[in-house]
Amino acid sequence: MKLILFDIDGTLISQTGASVFEMIANGESKFSFAVRKVFGLSVNIDFSTYNGYIDKSILWDCVKNSSITKEAFEKKLPVLAQAMAEYMDTIVTDTALYHAIPTARHFLDLVMNKSGIAYGILSGNVQSIAEWKLDKAGYNHIFQFGLYGEEADDRIELAKKVFVKADAFFHEQFSPKDVSVIGDTVHDIRCGKAIGAHTIAVMTGRHHDPVVLNAEHPDFLVDTLMDNSVLDYFGLKRV
């Protein structure tokens, strides 16, 4: 059996008119809102420094220079994730900004109807935010398996958890050659390569410079997931 792990932002969904980190209302992002609500800290975040970071690492960077210990932070991480979801529910009111990428949705529909392929999420978003985005883009209840941004300190560490977690969930033992990581950034390619997985870079996201992506040597670099080379690799037929 093969296992496909999908990134979310730029791979499955697009955000028309929204920033990478969602709307920032009154100068407050979902990260600063969560840190203020849970720890009572006011933080200014320069998101330009967090390219490739997962949510847990961004949150920890916000508080690590305060009196909060890593142990206390870890204990409050579920509450922080819940606060981030609260921000999205109450502040980000224009959910029409979130769209399924049509070719990604078409590809996923083919995957869902193909025997011998398991699928899930590999995202730097905490699970509550990942599910919020997927729901708003029309992917609600499709993904039952995933690895999310509160489960590790960085994306490669997160990817390495796939074998134990997927074996337990699917009751199937996956080897690296059975796994494919699909994403739109160099970070998706790197974490896939770090676990020996097949890597597919798709140019549907914000960071779609083919020169930059190709320099990471993905197994496939395609304009969309409906590229014939990708369909052939997974034994899928256009409908």
Please explain how this structure is put together.
Helix content is 41%, strand content 13%. The chain is an alpha/beta fold and 239 residues long. It has 2 domains: 2-15 and 97-234, HAD superfamily/HAD-like (Rossmann fold, 3-Layer(aba) Sandwich), CATH 3.40.50.1000; 30-91, DNA polymerase, domain 1 (Orthogonal Bundle), CATH 1.10.150. A 6-stranded parallel sheet has the order 5-4-1-6-7-8, sandwiched between helices. A two-stranded antiparallel sheet has the order 2-3. Helix 5 (127-136) links the parallel strand 4 (117-122) and strand 5. The longest helix is centred in the middle third of the chain and has 22 residues, at 70-91. The radius of gyration is 18 Å and the shape is globular. The model has no long low-confidence stretch (mean pLDDT 92).
Throw out a few tags for this protein.
globular; six-stranded parallel sheet; 2 domains; alpha/beta; about 40% helix; two-stranded antiparallel sheet; DNA polymerase, domain 1; about 240 residues; 10 helices; 8 strands; Rossmann fold
Element layout with pairings:
Blueprint: E1 2-6, E2 13-15, H1 30-39, H2 55-63, H3 70-91, E3 98-100, H4 102-112, E4 117-122, H5 127-136, E5 146-147, H6 155-160, H7 162-170, E6 179-183, H8 186-194, E7 198-202, H9 210-214, E8 220-222, H10 228-234
Parallel strand pairs: 1-4, 1-6, 4-5, 6-7, 7-8
Antiparallel strand pairs: 2-3
Helix pairs in contact: 1-3, 2-3, 3-5
